[in-house]
Design goal:
Layout (H helix, E strand, L loop, with lengths): L1 H18 L5 H137 L2 H16 L1
Length: 180
Amino acid sequence: MKKVVLFTLLITGLSFAGEQKEANESMILFWKAVNTVILLGLVYYFGGKHIKKFLNGRRENVANMVLEAQKMREDSQKALEDAKRKLEEAKYKLEESIKISKETAEREREHAIMQANEIAERIKMQAKETINIEIRKAEAKLKKYAAEKALEVSKSLIESSINPQTSNELIKKTIKGLEA
């Protein structure tokens, strides 16, 4: 029923506004205002629910967007803090790795020095042993040479100092020494 009344008022207002071309301007202004009020009333009547629904939906949508933006901001803050924490952990692990690497390198260096010293000591011992062996060989050769020379000298002395008479006496003494 309300719809019919409003529609009738609209039609009437439009017809009055259109008929009075010769009327004064105040009447035209009045009917324009009436038409505007009627138009706004019709828009409100027919579209009020939809407009309210749209505006409420828009308000809720904006509120949800604000809440979502706040949540995203909080999440990004948490992610930033987490990234900072992970960066600090990575720095700490890197420092620990460097420290361990330096300690390992130092131990390896000391171990290498110790092994080199042991090898040098073994080489010294082998050299001393080789020198001692060579000295003994040289002494043996020298003794052999000295014995050979002594024999040669003795032989030549004996041959030059022994004559047949001395030779017979020596043979007799040796035989007597063997018999006894």
